[in-house]
Amino acid sequence: MKAKDWDAPGVLKICGIEASNTGVGKARSKQSESIYSVLRHTDNDPVLFLAQRPGPNDAPNPDPLPLAEDLFAAFIAQEIARFNADTTSRAQGLRRGESRVAAFARLSEGRIARHASPLQRRSVRMKWHEKTVMQDGRIKFDQGLWGDENTQAAMLRHVGHKVLIGIDPNDYRAPAMVRGWEEADLRGRILLETLPVFEPAKHADEASRRRAVAEERRGKKLVATYRLTGVDTWVAEKRAEVMANAGLAPLPATPKIVQLDARGPFSPAAALYQKPELSQAARLLAMLNSEEDERNRTASGGNR
Question: Which domains does the chain have, with CATH numbers?
Answer without folding.
Answer: 27-108 (no CATH), 118-199 (2.40.50.100)
